[in-house]
Amino acid sequence: MIGGYKLAKAVALLIGGGVVLRLKPNDILVGVIRLAARLRFDPEDELFRSAIARLSGLSEKRLEVIGAGILFYGLLYSIEGVGLFLQKRWAEYLVVVTTSLLIPLEVYEVFKKAGPLRITVLLANVAIVAYLIGAIRSDMSRRTQREPGGTPSDCKDRPG
Known about the structure:
The chain is an all-alpha fold. 79% of the residues lie in helices and 0% in strands. Keywords: Membrane, Transmembrane, Transmembrane helix.
């Protein structure tokens, strides 16, 4: 299930990264203004004005960096998802490390401005890390009991 979740995120990020790399700064600004008009946002709204101010300051180089970053994360999630589907031990470790590194940022975001989506993402990532740590520990314990000498080999792939 986690592998499918990672692959779904990978597809979304790879598509999003490709779109961002093709955009020009003016395309984004025009698109946001059209969307705001279609949704009948108040042009004097602080959120709308803040978004326009941020988007109008984007350079083409900055968009390229953002697009490359999005593609990088898409590739990382692809590797994690495929590794989990193939039941590779390294993929479990990779997911634990990469997901754990994001948790402090997500906690900060929840405290900064709590919302149902932010809280759900935080709880989902904590659950994923806890589940994988439990699975890794359980598997290591089973290996220790089976292997002569009682030392598990962390570099081996998961059996099965």
